[in-house]
């Protein structure tokens, strides 16, 4: 028997491998992978409203995954302790259990003050719940056969946590012997093991804890929730359009004779070089987003991609956003447009780090032309893009992208391996006759 | 007077600044920057043959820039000594003059042996001369008004060197009081200060040495050659199509049931982290190329971007290609397709490093399915893409992309600054009435 499995699954037991093979041939025979190619043009095709309140495949739970943030300063301590406990995000090795709590306790007062400075908490829950709800309304019209689409949010480090979302799903009638369909929709446009990977690992963990043995029963009708994942969408034309429109809005605030000379500084959260060198796909996908946005903007302005929010003494991917801004200011370039490119809602890294540190510092140095582009937040263009991405995914019949099933070359995480096995196995339930 | 100059030029003397301002307003008024956006679809539009042997704007010198390689093993010593003397490529700081010759002398015997192993020399001169000549034939038909297009090659470290190319240009009737038009066409699809930047710096140096004071005379009809640069083309649809076709050809050599499971390992030359952290644009542009190629391929296969050819003890961008291949082989993934993605012709890094080191090592470990995709070399799809890129450039009337005029945030190179000033000033000659 020739091996038809991706590398992550080559050590599956023989029976499971046979099942996966069987599934795999079904997939290649019956499903088109071309749905994974974002359409070239951004055209929102909304069919006439013919919503069937009980679509033949509905209801569908649409679960937005993100890191989250404390909604009040009182939640900062718990938020940080979860964050520094996550080896997928901050790899501290065997010292994670000791160093994590130490670092989070030490940082809590400072970070509390930062959240107080931006109004007492992160707006990310508000935006996530709004985006998910609005997207579901659009989806109900665009895909009546999978309606109703029910919005959920699962944060990695703040309420609502993954386990709370999962408990709500079960309480709402999904799973528990009744089956049902859920889509894990990462809200990070570019995939990193530190972000989307960590959220999917957490989802896999709670699936096993809360659906117990049922989750191992892959036979159709086993009664557990059928999951699929939208794992990346870095150059979706609607995303690109939403970024471009916000950038153009900021550019219009400069006098016309300075407009084309302003430097666009795209800023993404950095990664430790240990993660980059392990083979994480995030830096290249951020590069793809930036190039796509610049294409849409006609390459009129000069630009750079920079990386922010480095912490600790280890090596991180650069150039750093703060250095980039201060060096350009020193060179006399004081019209700089900062564009958060890897996160779609406002959070501490935009509202505090960019607005109250980087821009304030530049202003202190005399540069008055440094501005930040608004985050996508409630952008209708963005929310329509989310609906189109979800629609493409639902039509594809795929449990995730082929790319997601491939581990990083230097990955040693067993949890990552198990999570990928789980999503690959979900393909079987997806392709089984209803 | 408000400042209309990009940061690199803010310290220009007042008169030059006024001239640049004047030019700048002309540019924004009369020229469309949208020519810099690659057309979305790869369609070769070749007008009927109406070649005017003396096109109204011709002749045009088309100068292919690349690093080059020794055509015989006897040239290896000179090649390496030039390479290690180049601070743009290998930044050794104040010790460059001492360490460069030391390292190159020490490495010469080993590298000589590598060139002997691939047939006695690099084929890059053969391919570059072929590509340039074939492209010029196409261009003569596609752009009769700028014909005849005359092919030249300028290598950074091997014959024909930049100074030899420049001397040939002058001997052929360009410059020397007679004016004339030349295009510096980088053969690196993605821009790095280490590669394209170094070649352009060298071109600027020899322009000054060989055209003397004339090169400072920016008035129309001053008699020196008018230069423009095609500085990057990472996602041109023709380039993407050429890569995709070669990848598909390699995938067809696998049995059908293994084809979609093969992992595509894109491999680009790495950069020292000091260059990445300075703000070099290359990593993000390579990421854009990879994503564009995967879009064209329909994301059917899992893939990774890896980086090769690291030397010395300092930190370089990873993951390393050799590590990526050996780790996947260890994980049981033995069908791997290596794709050189940042160089268009064969060279020591493909013919020796990938073929005789990485693949041979994998085969030694028992992996028989590791293959390399053919380099673009003589691909007619690729050569047509070059012609389309050149045509777009000639029609744009731009001396270079706005992006090229922006220095890296942490750049301290005076040569870089002067080179950018030079290309910006060329805009004046380009837009002057003939």
UniProtKB/TrEMBL annotation, chains A, B:
Pfam families xref list: Ferrochelatase
Keywords tagged on the record: Heme biosynthesis, Iron, Lyase, Membrane, Mitochondrion, Mitochondrion inner membrane, Porphyrin biosynthesis
Recorded coiled-coil stretches: none
Entry EC no(s): 4.98.1.1
Leading EC class: lyase
Pathway(s) of this molecule: Porphyrin-containing compound metabolism; protoheme biosynthesis; protoheme from protoporphyrin-IX: step 1/1
InterPro entries: Ferrochelatase, Ferrochelatase_AS, Ferrochelatase_C, Ferrochelatase_N
Gene Ontology biological-process entries: heme biosynthetic process
GO molecular function term, any single one: ferrochelatase activity
Catalytic reactions on record: heme b + 2 H(+) = protoporphyrin IX + Fe(2+)
UniProt subcellular location: Mitochondrion inner membrane
Domain of life of the source: Eukaryota
Cellular component GO terms held in the UniProt record: mitochondrial inner membrane
Main localization (coarse): mitochondrion
Family membership noted in the UniProt record: Belongs to the ferrochelatase family.
Purpose of the protein: Catalyzes the ferrous insertion into protoporphyrin IX.
Protein name: Ferrochelatase
Protein species of origin: Eremomyces bilateralis CBS 781.70
Lineage: Eukaryota, Fungi, Dikarya, Ascomycota, Pezizomycotina
């Amino acid at each position: 028997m020739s091996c038809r499995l991706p590398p992550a699954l080559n050590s599956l037991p023989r029976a499971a491998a046979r099942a996966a093979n069987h599934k795999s041939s079904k997939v290649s025979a019956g499903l088109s992978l071309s749905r994974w190619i974002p359409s070239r043009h951004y055209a929102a095709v909304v069919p006439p409203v013919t919503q069937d309140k009980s679509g033949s495949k509905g209801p569908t739970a649409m679960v937005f995954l993100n890191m989250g943030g404390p909604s009040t300063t009182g939640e900062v301590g718990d938020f940080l302790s979860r964050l520094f406990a996550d080896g997928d995000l901050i790899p501290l090795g065997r010292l994670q259990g000791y160093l994590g709590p130490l670092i989070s306790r030490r940082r809590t007062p400072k970070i509390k003050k930062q959240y107080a400075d931006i109004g007492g908490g992160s707006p990310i829950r508000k935006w996530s719940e709004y985006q998910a709800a609005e997207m579901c309304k659009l989806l109900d019209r665009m895909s009546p056969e999978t309606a109703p689409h029910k919005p959920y949010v699962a944060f990695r480090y703040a309420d609502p946590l993954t386990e709370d979302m999962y408990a709500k799903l079960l309480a709402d009638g999904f799973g528990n012997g009744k089956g049902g369909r859920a889509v894990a929709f990462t809200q990070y446009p570019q995939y990193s093991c530190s972000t989307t990977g960590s959220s999917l690992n957490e989802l896999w963990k709670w699936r096993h804890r809360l659906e117990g043995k049922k989750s191992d029963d892959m036979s159709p009708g086993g009664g557990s929730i059928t999951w699929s994942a939208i794992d990346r969408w870095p150059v979706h034309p609607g995303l690109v359009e939403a970024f471009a429109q916000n950038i153009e809005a900021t550019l219009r605030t400069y006098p016309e004779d300075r407009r084309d000379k302003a430097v666009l500084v795209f800023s993404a959260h950095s990664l430790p070089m240990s993660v980059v060198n392990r083979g994480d796909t995030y830096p290249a996908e951020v590069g793809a987003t930036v190039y796509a946005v610049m294409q849409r903007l006609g390459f009129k302005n000069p630009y750079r991609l920079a990386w922010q929010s480095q912490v600790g003494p280890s090596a991180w991917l650069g150039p750093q956003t703060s250095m980039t801004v201060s060096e350009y200011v020193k060179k006399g370039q004081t019209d700089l447009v900062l564009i958060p490119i890897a996160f779609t809602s406002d959070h501490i890294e935009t509202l505090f780090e960019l607005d109250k540190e980087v821009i304030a510092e530049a202003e202190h140095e005399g540069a008055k032309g440094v501005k930040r582009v608004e985050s996508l937040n409630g952008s209708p263009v963005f929310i329509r893009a989310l609906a189109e991405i979800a629609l493409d995914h639902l039509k594809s019949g795929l449990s995730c992208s082929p790319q997601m099933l491939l581990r990083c070359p230097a990955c040693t995480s067993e949890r990552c391996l198990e999570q990928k096995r789980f999503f690959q196995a979900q393909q079987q339930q997806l392709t089984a006759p209803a």
